[in-house]
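ugh ok fine here u go
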Amino acid sequence: MTTINVGDKKISIGDLVWIPANTPLMHYLPKEEHEFFGRSTDKKEPVYGLVISHNEYSYRVLVGKEEFYVQKKQVYGVEE
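structure:
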């Protein structure tokens, strides 16, 4: 399991993260569908997301049955 150090907190792949209401979520799409990559959505209510992977600036999270990218600085409790 990969651990992401965030200040004094540790977030691991498989952890749930709190995503505040109206946070922009970028749709995750397979490589063959890049023409729609810029689409984003805002959840009107706060949600939990399951961390699937991460890069320097964002998490890939599972919210319900959909996968999204969310900026790390938008996730509750994460400070960059």
